[in-house]
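Weekly structure sync, notes
Attendees: PL (lead), two postdocs, one rotation student
Agenda item 3: pending single-chain targets
PL asked that the sequence for the first pending target be pasted directly into the notes so everyone works from the same version. It is reproduced below exactly as submitted, 228 residues in total.
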Amino acid sequence: MRLTVAKTSMTLLTTVIAAALSLTAACSGHGAVAPLESTTSTTVTTKNFPYPGVRTVQDVVPSIAGTGVPAAEIAIKWELLHSDWMISHQEEVPHELLSIVTANNKPEWMPSNVMEGTGGELIRAVNVREIDRISWEVSVCNYDTPGVYYPGEAGQLKLGFPTWAQYASTATVVLTSGPDGTGATSSGPRLLISRTTLPLNDEAHAICDPFRPDPFIQQPPEPLPAHK
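Predicted structure, written out during the meeting:
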């Protein structure tokens, strides 16, 4: 469904987008480019698994600029929050995740055997297509580099997903004051994700291959100093 904005709200719309862009530029120090902070999962280090948590690095490619930057950032945020939710093995959708999606795009719980590991990954927003003045389609790639590893036999680490090195996701981001996944509305428009899809096979390669890190390194981390 195509969203429209009344003329009387256009000033507010412009202000919201400008504020988002100003915040992005101030935080990144690179103008339209938005390198984001890395995060580390809270893996419990034990004698049998003496490694740090997974380190996730997030960034936005330099070709994304203007109003596309905050749209790209919220798409990356969705990736992080959704991944953390899957790892938690808790069926209830986290409030923070519900607060960035529209009411008709609440994520559904899917049981999985995903667990905490070690190593690192890169989540990169690679393209933003403006659908209209208040909606964008964002392509995000998750690159398994330097790789997420899990306990293997004889205490050795094994690459968690050896059959793939990347996957793509696409998020439709809208600027709206309508209800989010928690049912809350806002006095002014804010960015929410109204739809997410997972491009597969050739489509995923076409999206992610041009922005793949070079060299593409996969190497497990060293044990924590106390366990070397």
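Discussion points:
- DSSP finds four helices and seven strands in the chain.
- The beta strands are 36-40, 55-60, 118-132, 135-151, 157-159, 166-176, 190-197.
Action: rotation student to compare against the earlier draft before next sync.
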